[in-house]
Structure formats: structure tokens, C-alpha cells
């Protein structure tokens, strides 16, 4: 009787374990050059992103994804102004500090949630003309066919000010 229960328990564990392995989504590689597609994006007008930049600018992500290291170069081009900055993230949960475009440190930690890379951010940043505490969460994923890179981002600032954006990128 004990051995029958033991075998049944072992089979149940193996079946459950097998289902867990099967349902685990593969971790994608985000490497490549990706250009913002405004027609598929949801970008609110904010002080952080000037309207003239959104109207005539170009945003490109050059991503180098090697193992647990993800380097993202953001290139912004608007009229005669071109800027670029690079941030490094680790997909294994290690914390990293990157400097934002305004020169302020932002702490982040990234981890996989299925096939989406989740990055939790925090820092003190300039917002609405004053220094404020910011907490954020980014979700980076590929579309099912791998042709779109989707970034969903939420930023929460002191005073309950929340900004959300959904950016969709395509390979040129």
C-alpha cells in the first residue's frame, strides 16, 4: 500500500514537473536595431517627452543581448539634434545603476516573467521642474512572430503622478 502511494506520488510529481517545463516560455534574444513605429504605439503627451520630438523625431534602439547582459543604445534624432545614451541591464536579477539622459542615476533590476523581460526601476529624477522619487516598471517582449519589439512602461512619481507608455518597434 505504501509503495503504491509512493509511486502515485512520484508520477504526480513527474507529471506536474513535466507540465511546468513545457509551459515555461523560451527567453527571447532582443538583439538588433529597432525603430519606433508610432502608428502601433501609445505615447501620451508629457513634459518628459516634448511634443515636437514626438511629432518629427526618430527613436531607434540598438540592442546587444548576450547571455544575461542586455545593452540598449537609445538614439533620438529630431530636426538637427541627435542624441544617444547606453544602458546595461542584467536579466538574471542583478541590480545595476545607469545614468539617465539628464545625468541622474537610476537603479534597476531585471528578471524574466515568461518570455517578457521585466525591469523594476527606482531613482530620484527631475520631474515637473523638481526632484522627485520615481519608481517604474518596464516590460520588454517580442511579438509572437518576432517581428515587433514591444515596450510597456509605467513611471510613478511623488504626488501620485503616473505616466504610461506603450512603444512598438520594428526592424528597418
Describe the structure.
The protein is α+β, with helices and mostly antiparallel strands. The chain has one domain: Calycin beta-barrel core domain (Lipocalin), CATH 2.40.128. 16% of the residues lie in helices and 54% in strands. The chain is built from two helices and ten strands; from the N terminus they run H-E-H-E-E-E-E-E-E-E-E-E. The chain has a ten-stranded antiparallel beta sheet with strand order 4-3-2-1-10-9-8-7-6-5. A hairpin with a 2-residue loop joins strand 7 and strand 8. It starts with a helix and ends with a strand.
Helix-strand pattern: HEHEEEEEEEEE
Mean pLDDT: 81
Form type: globular
Distance between the termini: 65 Å
Name given to the CATH homologous superfamily: Calycin beta-barrel core domain
What is the count of DSSP helices, taking H or I runs of 4+ residues? 2
Q: Summarize the biggest pleated sheet.
A: 10 strands, antiparallel
Cα radius of gyration in angstroms: 20 Å
| Strand count | 10
Q: What's the helical proportion of residues?
A: 10-25%
> Widest sheet: strand order?
4-3-2-1-10-9-8-7-6-5
Q: How does the helix and strand content classify structurally?
A: alpha+beta
Amino acid at each position: 500500500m505504501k509503495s503504491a502511494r509512493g509511486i502515485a506520488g512520484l508520477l504526480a510529481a513527474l507529471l506536474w514537473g513535466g507540465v511546468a517545463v513545457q509551459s515555461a516560455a523560451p527567453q527571447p534574444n532582443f538583439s538588433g536595431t529597432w525603430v519606433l513605429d508610432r502608428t502601433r504605439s501609445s505615447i501620451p503627451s508629457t513634459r518628459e517627452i516634448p511634443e515636437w520630438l514626438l511629432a518629427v523625431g526618430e527613436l531607434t534602439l540598438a540592442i546587444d543581448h548576450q547571455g544575461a547582459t542586455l545593452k540598449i543604445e537609445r538614439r533620438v534624432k529630431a530636426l538637427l539634434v541627435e542624441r544617444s545614451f547606453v544602458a546595461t541591464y542584467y536579466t538574471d536579477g542583478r541590480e545595476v545603476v545607469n545614468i539617465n539622459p539628464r545625468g541622474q542615476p537610476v537603479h534597476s533590476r531585471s528578471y524574466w516573467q515568461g518570455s517578457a523581460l521585466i525591469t523594476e526601476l527606482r531613482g530620484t529624477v527631475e520631474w515637473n521642474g523638481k526632484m522627485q522619487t520615481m519608481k517604474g516598471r518596464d516590460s520588454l517582449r517580442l511579438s509572437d512572430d518576432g517581428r515587433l519589439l514591444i515596450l510597456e512602461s509605467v513611471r510613478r512619481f511623488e504626488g501620485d503622478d503616473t505616466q504610461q507608455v506603450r512603444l512598438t518597434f520594428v526592424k528597418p
